[in-house]
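Hey,
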Amino acid sequence: VQLQASGGGLVQPGGSLSLSCEASGSIWSIKTMAWYRQPPGKRRELVARISFASDGTTDYTDSVKGRFTISRDNAKNTLYLEMNSLKTEDTAVYYCVRVGTSDRGQGTQVTVSS
């Protein structure tokens, strides 16, 4: 599966951004997708993940609960991350990942700064 991420950019604290990740290739094999991020000088961390089964189960890391929303559009083979009430500590390179595989989109930079 090939993953193409887009979105990101520079936003002020309290602002919003949206990320997208379009999948191509063996789409039928996708079970769970996730967004990870790697802040400057820190280790990569899981942000949120979502099942591509009919239930669309989601879970989030505590620091983004209530602010970020992960979703998917199976018809468009696209994963999304809606980010609201952004904080400076959300600054990172964000990656979309097919969980359980080495499939990963190119990183997209999110910078939250005044």
